[in-house]
Amino acid sequence: MSDTPSSKDSSNGSSSESAPKKNRKPSLTEQRRNARKLTLQALYQWQVGGQQANEIEAQFRINPEMKEADVQLFSQLLRGVINEKAELDVIFSPFLDRNIDELDPVEVNVLRIGSFELLRRMEVPYRVAINESVELAKVFGATDSHRYVNGVLDKVAQKSRRAEIAARR
Q1: Would you state the pLDDT for residue 121?
Q2: Domain membership flag for residue 19
Q3: CB within 8 A of 157, min separation 6: which ones?
Q4: Percentage of the chain with pLDDT > 90?
Q5: What are the beta bridge partners of residue 15?
Q6: Is residue 12 in some structural domain?
Q7: Does the structure show a pLDDT above 90 at 146?
Q8: Contact 119, 161 (CB under 8 A)
């Protein structure tokens, strides 16, 4: 195919031949990011809708978006956050400026995911755990919730990952 004006992508000037393939498999980083996104959506459904975790997990496993997600991470995060909800809430609550019941369900579940990763997924660098949660808050949270999430999770990391943080300085 020649590089004619009709074969150009009008948004960036590149030819359609060099456009990313829709069928390419997402990178591991993208799969993990998608798993976190789907976990947040599932936790929201669990918290607000009151459905059982097993029902929600089954629904999400047949979600077409799950094809581009790390299914194992999705299950680990969903089950881990639900099973350890009370413990996670105790970990980050001291760093809140208000009662946990006053937080938006999206914010509180982003904090739970981030806290779970900081406490239970030691193979994930603390900066990655915080950044991924901040990105979730930017996409799904209120206007400045990402700043709030960043501040709270930074304090959780200082408490739970002291050695890792000290080694980076």
Answers
A1: 97
A2: no
A3: 118, 126, 129, 130, 165
A4: 79
A5: 8
A6: no
A7: yes
A8: no
Q: How many CA atoms lie within 13 A of 60 on its CB side?
A: 30
Which residue reads 């990011």 in tokens? Answer: 33
Q: How many domains does the chain have?
A: 1
Range of the domain at 35: 28-168
Q: What CATH number has the domain bearing residue 147? A: 1.10.940.10
For the chain, the average pLDDT equals 89
Amino acid at 24: R
- Write down the pLDDT at residue 21: 52
3-state secondary structure of 10: coil
pLDDT band at 169 (very low <50, low <70, confident <90, very high): confident
Residue 118 and residue 160 in contact, taking contact as beta carbons nearer than 8 Å: yes
CA 52 to chain CA mean position, Å: 21
Place of tokens 């994930």: 124
